[in-house]
Write a structure and sequence with these properties.
mainly beta; Immunoglobulin-like; 5-stranded antiparallel sheet; 4-stranded mixed sheet
C-alpha cells in the first residue's frame, strides 16, 4: 500500500522523496501510525510537533509509506503498529503491547531511542529505507 502526505514541512528549496518499507509485522490487523519529524525535542511523539508529517495506513499486505517531497534536512521516523486501531500505543506497566519501529533501526534501551540515533539526512537524492517492527509483549 502506498500513501502520500499532502503537506510540506515548511521549508523551501530542494526536496526529495522519503519512502519507508515496513518489515516484521506480526499480524495483518489494525494500522500503522507513522511520523516524520525534524524536531529532536518531540521525537518520537510527534503529536507535539505541528510541522511533523504524519501518516495512518491500514495494514494490508506489504506496507510502503510515502512521506512525499521533503525539504533537505535531518529527520527521524517513528512507527507504531496499532493492532487494535485505537490510535495510540497500548502499554502494560509501561511496556509496549503493540509494535514499534524507528528509522535506522535505532536501538531501544529502557525507553525510546534519542533523535540522533534514529536521524538520517535528506539531500538531493530520494531516500529509501526499511524499518523493522519490534514487539516486546
Amino acid at each position: 500500500m502506498l500513501l502520500a502526505a499532502p503537506l510540506t514541512l515548511g521549508a523551501t528549496g530542494p526536496q526529495s522523496d522519503v519512502i519507508a518499507s515496513i518489515t516484521g509485522l506480526r499480524s495483518q490487523k489494525g494500522q500503522i501510525l507513522a511520523c516524520l519529524t525534524t524536531d529532536a525535542r518531540t521525537f518520537p511523539n510527534c503529536d507535539k510537533d505541528p510541522q511533523a508529517r504524519k501518516l495512518t495506513v491500514p495494514v494490508s499486505g506489504e506496507i510502503r509509506l510515502d512521506f512525499g517531497r521533503v525539504p533537505e534536512g535531518r529527520y527521524a521516523i517513528s512507527l507504531i503498529h496499532d493492532e487494535n486501531g485505537n490510535g495510540k500505543l497500548d502499554t502494560a506497566l509501561m511496556i509496549p503491547r503493540e509494535g514499534f519501529g524507528f528509522s535506522r533501526d535505532a536501538p531501544v534501551r529502557m525507553g525510546p531511542p534519542r533523535f540522533d540515533k534514529a536521524a538520517f539526512d535528506v539531500g538531493a537524492e530520494n531516500t529509501r529505507m526499511t524499518i523493522r517492527m519490534r514487539y516486546l509483549l
